[in-house]
Amino acid sequence: MSAKLDFVARSEHKLVGKMGFRIGRTIGKGTYSKVCLSTNSKGDKFACKIIRKKLAGSDFIEKFLPREIEIITAIKHPNIIQVYKIMETQQVIYMFMDYCRDGDLLEYIREYGCFPEEKAKHYFRPLVEAVAYLHDLDIAHRDIKCENIFLMANKQVKLGDFGFARMCTDAYGKHVLSDTFCGSAAYAAPEILKGISYDPKMYDMWSLGCVLYIMVSASMPFDDLDVKRMIKSQLNRSIFTVTLLWPDYSLQMKNLLNSLLEPDLHKRITIGAVKQHEWFDRGHLLKLKRFLSRSTTSLL
What's the structural domain count of the chain? Predict the structure, then answer.
């Protein structure tokens, strides 16, 4: 392949080398970007997102990218991908971030299948913590999906890709609605698909419901091939009937799932309520009941 057709010119890579990083093999590709494995002079591994400006387009470069950079440089949480360095040249933007050896959640589920309930809880809880952290800062992710949830070598869960993230308040602290269609249709709430102004935080909640559904079923909750039929299915709460047929999952988990995939915005659960949901305490309560049962038996 000629130098003109190279995704990133060699001279650009040499500049990165002077900054102490080495660009390695490609581990992911997008429409206008790719992710490469990178190492620094100490041998530490990073994922390097390389964005080609010309391919990205002016709307992304002038609107979405500045938002993303502003947000990712201001946040730090154990369950959010940490960006350590951003470098920009005339043609390319480099973002050096956490390297997640085990890939994304979708890949993991495709390989190992759906999760039993306790495993789903183990993976879902840190995701809830990450979203709660963002919402407390009035930040909405707007693209929560299995492909943007990554697994570290120690199976630690991390939320990444803040390309559609935005603040939920204006300069005066007033709550603002969103009008932009963001993310993937398969994870989109009915208000997004209907093209009306929406609360970006509540969009995140719906997407969390889709992720939880995929965790426990290894399938999508809605078919996005026919958007009109998809909206109808969402508004009819057809998913509620589906979960009734799951004998291996608790009523608490089903209740949480249905509360997340609630089409009525006024009834859809908030992230604060999710953190306090009884499903997350169920394991603790079961252990307590067993302990009390053993204690009572020993006294007889």
Answer: 2
143 in active site = yes
Query: Where residue 36 sits, what CATH number does that domain have?
Result: 3.30.200.20
Which of 98, 102, 136, 143 is catalytic? The answer is 143
On the 0-12 / 13-18 / 19+ scale of CB atoms within 10 A, 70 is middle
Domain boundary among 65, 97, 129: 97
Rounded CA-CA distance 17/147 in Å is: 29
Do the annotations mark residue 53 as ligand-binding? yes
Per DSSP, helices labelled H in 171-237 are: 190-193, 200-217, 227-235
pLDDT digits (tens, 9 = 90+) for 199-224: 999 999 999 999 999 999 999 999 99
Site of tokens 């620094």? 40
**Going by DSSP bridges, is the β-strand pair 45-52/83-88 parallel, antiparallel, or unpaired?**
unpaired
Co-location of 47 and 127 in the same domain = no
pTM: 0.87
Q: Which domain holds residue 260?
A: 103-283
